[in-house]
Amino acid sequence: MQHIDARPIVRQVNHDAVIDSHIAPQSMSDRVAFAFVKLLRFCADTFFAHRYGHRAVVLETVAAVPGMVGGLWQHLRALRMMRDDDGWIRTLLDEAENERMHLMTFVKIAQPNWFERALIIAVQMVFYNFYFFLYLFAPRTAHRVVGYFEEEAVISYTGYLAEVDAGRHENIAAPQIAIDYWQLPDDARLRDVIIAVRADEAEHRDVNHAFVDVIDKKRAS
C or N: which end of the chain has fewer Cβ atoms within 10 Å? Predict the structure, then answer.
């Protein structure tokens, strides 16, 4: 039987990622997406406050859903239309894989309890079904939701980094899964992990906002 290497593809930390970036809502679709993400942010702030490690676990559970859903729909659409996908499928699936690795990393860091693990299951079930139908009927809004969601993720990780730098969160050793995935130094700390994850989220933010631009151009042509 042929051996299958199931290890995730390693990444390099993007130190050139633009951290401070925001796309102001203009259309009704944008405003709906922005309001929805702000509602999610309010819920996260209310429930987790400054427990950033535990917030990250739930955040990454949600963040790993859109890429897989979008990749599935783009795959099926490419089959139906019998055309090339222009690289969307691989980009979206890579996003899903990357967010899953974020989750695996913060599970090692935060060590969620049974209640938080149950919450993760519940949130994933609800959000998956919501996003599935959102992407089916309004893919433009779906990508804008992810763009704004990732904007909030960058803000959250910047806050997390500030807490670590201020000494309010212990700058513990980075888990081995993070060292292997981002090819960090063997003595890497939590601070290095946060910087790597934040850079990934900034990339996903820009990609999904760019997908909205592509959809708008196609509709205008």
Answer: N
